[in-house]
Every structure is written in C-alpha cells, then in structure tokens.
Amino acid sequence: MSAQEERHALTPPTALYDHVLHLLRDSPGGVPSWRGYSLPQKTATSAGSSSREEAKSAIREALSPLPDDHAILHRRFERLGIQDRHRHLINSIVAGLPLPAERLDAARTLGRRLIRTGTTAPTVTAGIALLGRLGGPEDVPHLSVLGLFRDLTGIAVKALDILDRRSAGVVWLAVYARRDELQPLVHALWTGDRQAMRTELVALPASPRFVSSAVARRISEACLLSDLLDDHPSDTHLVARAGRLLVRMGRSRDDAADLLGYHDGLRVYNSVVSRAGLLPPTLDNAAMLLSLALDMSSGTGVLLDWPPGLRASLLDSLGRLLAEPRWALAGATASNAEQRRRVDWIRRTGRQPFKSRAASGPFRIEVVAGDPADREPVETRVLIDGRPVVPAVFGRGPAHSPEYLLDDGRLRAGDEPREVQLAEANCTEGCCGALYVRIRQDAHHVVWEHWRQTMPGSREPTPELPAYRFDAAAYGAEVARAETDCSWSWRARSIARLIKAGLVEDPGLLSRWDASRGWISSGFDGSCPREWCIDGHSVISF
Questions:
Q1: Would you state the pLDDT for residue 539?
Q2: What DSSP character marks residue 421?
Q3: Please, how many CA atoms are within 13 Å of residue 279, restricted to the half-sphere of its CB?
Q4: Which helix (H) or strand (E) holds 314?
C-alpha cells in the first residue's frame, strides 16, 4: 500500500456536521455564507442504480431491516450504489417506512447518530428523515446546521417545519433569500437579535420583487411575527409591515400554500386589523388594507380556518375604517402617474370587498383588480359556497381574466357540455399545469363536473373534486351580471374590451385588409402602452 493510500485508509472522513461547523466558524460573525455551502467533493463510486425504480428497490433493501448501527447503513448504501442524487428518494422512503412501536426509540437513536457522524449525503439524509418523524427540540440545532448544505436544505427544512417552524424559516432564508437587501435581516435572524430583527423587518423593501409569497411566509415564521406584534402593540411601522407580509402571502400569482401553510396567519390578521386604526392614512397603508380586505373577501384568505364570525367581524372593521373621511383623502396629494393610478384603483375598488359580502348563493363571480403598484393581475374569482375555487384546488396561478372567461362567454351553460380552463400556472400549463372543469346545463340546473388538473411530470395523483349543481336561472343571472359589470375596469382596458367586442360582432370589418383579429387588451395596471394587435402587429396605441 502506498503512503497516500495508507493515509486515506487510516484517516476517517470528516462527518458532514463537523464539516459545516468548521465552515461556520470561519464565516464572519459565525453567520452562514449567502446561499449556504456545497457538500464536500467525494471520490467516484460505483455507477449505482440506473433507474428510479431500481434506486427505490435498492434503498428499501438497505433500510430493511433498519439497523441499530449507523455504520451498517453506511456500508449498505455504498454496496448498493446509493448516491447523493438519490437523497430525495431516501427522504420519501424513510418518511413512509413502517416503524413498530417497540423500534421507535432505536430508530430515533439511529437518526441522531446519522446526522452527527454521517459522512455522506445518503446516510445523513436518512437521519434527517428519521428525525423529521421522531425527533425533538434537542435535534433542531443539528438539523439547522446541516440545512446550510444547499443539497440538504429542502430535506432539513421539511423536518424542521415539523419540529420548529422558526428554525425552518431561518435556515430557508439563509440559503434561499437571494436579494442583497434581505441579508441584514437574515443576519439578525441567525444571531437571534430581536431588536435588530424588528429594525430590519420594518426596513424591508416594499416591492414584491424583493418579497415573494414564500419569502414573506418564511420571514413571518422566522421572526415569530405574531409574538413580535404582541411585544410592540403600538408600533405602527411593524403593523404596516405585518399587513404587507400578509398581502404578499395572499398573492394570487404565487403559491396559495404559503398563506394557507402559515400557522399564525389568523393571529396576525387579527393583530393587523384590530390595530389598523393606529396607522396614518397614507396611500401605502390604504392600499395595503384594501388588498387585505379583497383577500379576506374572495381570495386565498377566505380559506383559512376562521373561527365563526371572526372574518366577517374583521371585514366590517376594515369597511368602517376605510370609509372614514381621513382615509378617503389618502393619496389626495398624489404627485406622479403611478400614485394617481393607485388612487384611481382605490376609488374603483374601495367598497367592493364590503359590498360583495352581502351577496349570497352557492355560485358567485367576483372580478378583482389587484394593487397596480404591485402589478397584480385582474382575475375572475369564482366562489362556490363562499369559497374561491382556484386557490382552494389549484393554487399555482391566478384565475383567468374576465376577457377570457366572461367576454367570450366561456362560463355560460348550454345543452352541449363545454370544458373550460379556469386557471393556468404562472409559468405555463406545460410547466406546472392548469385547472379545467366541464360546464353543462341539465334541465333546470347547471352542472360543474369532471374537474381536471394537468400536472406535467408529476407522480402525485391530483385530488378528485365533486360535481356541483346550481339553479340554472340563478346561475345565468350571476354570469350575466358579471359579464356586464365593468366597475372594476379603467378607461384603457374598457376601450380595448369595446374594440374587441366590436370586431367579434362584425368580423367583416377587418376583411378589407385581409386581416384577422389577434390580441386586444391593455396593460393590466394601466402603466404599460395599450395596443390593438392584428395578427401580432401593433396597429393602434392608446
């Protein structure tokens, strides 16, 4: 044996946990490097399983029976060719592994040994997955440290979400918060400095470019936002920031699971609305409170597990507050075009979430235009039994626009069944899917049935949805009302809709140019150039 081979044979490899501790000690202030750390390079091993099914079979073989000695599991993984790239399969298989009651303590002990002494990603992953099922508070620091490896972050955060959501949020932000502007807050979170945490939270940029729904949720969890609000009951800056984080979590462009998965959501809603009267009546605050009301009235916020009467009470409180003269003057000194667009949006939309609550019936349509400063879309929210359909069953993108669902009569019912796409993922249907339903008239009823979700590449079954039956007369009246209600629209968009309607009614108008109708619309927030396009060519701007 050569001297180099002897050195490798006699020197045990460093545990991944010890490796990342060393990296942390070398980081300024003991704060992890932005975007976390890479796993240490490993020497090449056997080719491993060539297919997913072969890998699953090998992992199950390695885990059956679950050994008491962590070194045995390490050797099994090596012998069966289980590699770093199989870590997500390992995580899912361990999560579903049958564990008899008499083996729970041994499995917990094995998990702890694996995360503290494991030298490879597969063995450490198995340990993380075991502790996600069986761990306790004493395991949180070790899981938080291992989560700083980028390849293990998602798996570690999943376990931490079960054990300690604050730590899960801190680790998630330390690795995934990719804006420089968020780094001071991440630093305060990692060091646990509550005063700096509050200061940096209030100083966060307001734009959704910096704070997506996922970032908003993780910030709220990592800061223990509900506790922070209780500690500073008169801090209006903190109340306003908390409200904006709720608005971000409820964005229809993002994942509905961010708001629905935020366990302290109801406490924060209650704190913000109950203290909204302390806020100065600025344009930003008026827009934030109106956005909250729209979400609580017909958006994702409806789907939270509200105690009886609380949501109605909070909406009534917001309605009374925003009707006060001092709030009616918010934005009276708007000095630029963006502020004036926002003031116009508040004027058009300001009473919508409070009037719509008076509407009743199993089927309702709300066309909602979001805050133009946040470049929110206009969406056709369909509510069945008071619950918004799209975020309840799809949640990967907003409901389609009224131009698509209403202007073209797609929601009308007829004797011939019609399949309608209600929503498409933000990225495109080909990437993350879409939501469809079949609409037909059956004598005196309209039936929504045969729900279909497309999820390209997904191995998970989509949830089955029931058929819904509505009184045909009431259904037709609601669709007709929504088709003719333009109170949500602004001038440029209304003109575009009229042009489109005219060309649909008389397509012969274009025949003199041997042209056909193409895209006709306006910028969704009124800030972009508005164009009438024929065959993809801009013909008129307004």
A1: 46
A2: E
A3: 29
A4: helix 310-322
What is the distance between the alpha carbons of residues 348 and 525, in angstroms, rounded to a whole number? Answer: 13
- By the 8 A CB rule, do 165 and 263 touch? yes
Using a 10 angstrom Cβ sphere, with 0-12 exposed, 13-18 middle and 19 or more buried, the burial of residue 40 is: middle
The sign one gets for the Cα dihedral 421, 422, 424, 425 is: negative
Is the distance from CB of 257 to CB of 393 less than 8 angstroms?
A: no
Determine the pLDDT at residue 526. Answer: 43
Two structure tokens written together for 33: 């490097």
Q: Which of 28, 429, 44, 26 is nearest to 191 (CA)?
A: 28
Three-state SS string over 227-239 comes to HHHHHCCCCHHHH
State the residue for tokens 């920031």: 241
Are 128 and 156 within 8 A, CB to CB?
yes
Distance of CA 459 to the CA centre of its chain: 20
pLDDT digits (tens, 9 = 90+) for 420-429: 999 998 888 8
Residue range 369-399, pLDDT digits in tens: 999 988 888 999 999 999 999 999 998 899 9
* Pair of tokens at residue 158: 């999943």
Q: Indicate the range of 40-54, 282-296, 417-431 predicted with least confidence.
A: 40-54
Closest CA to 116 of 104, 130, 95, 100: 130
- Residue 361: closest CA among 451, 477, 447, 283: 477
| Interatomic CA distance for residues 23 and 38, integer angstroms | 10
For tokens 């908390």, the residue is 242
Spell out a b/e string for 169-190, using b for 16 or more CB atoms within 10 Å of the CB, else e: bbbbbbbbbeeeebbbbbbbbb
First-to-last C-alpha distance (Å) of the chain: 81
What does the alpha-carbon distance between residue 12 and residue 2 come to, in Å, rounded to a whole number?
A: 17
Q: What is the pLDDT of residues 166-196, one digit of tens each?
A: 999 999 999 998 788 889 999 999 999 999 9
E runs forming strands in 238-376: 363-369
d(Cα 376, Cα 527) in Å, to the nearest integer?
12
Peptide bond preceding 65 in cis form (omega within 30 of 0): yes
Q: What is the C-alpha to C-alpha distance for residues 93 and 122, in angstroms, rounded to an integer?
A: 12
Residue pLDDT, tens place only, 429-442: 888 889 999 999 99
The C-alpha atoms of residue 526 and residue 504 are separated, in whole angstroms, by 24
Is the bond preceding residue 463 a cis peptide, omega within 30 degrees? no
Lay out the sheet containing 378-384: strands in order across: 363-369, 378-384, 387-388
Taking the C-alpha atoms of residue 392 and residue 59, their distance in angstroms, rounded to an integer, is 35
Rounded Cα gap, residues 283 and 238, in angstroms? 17
Round to whole Å and give the CA distance between 284 and 240: 9
For the chain, what is the radius of gyration of the CA atoms?
27
Tokens for 424?
A: 């498409």
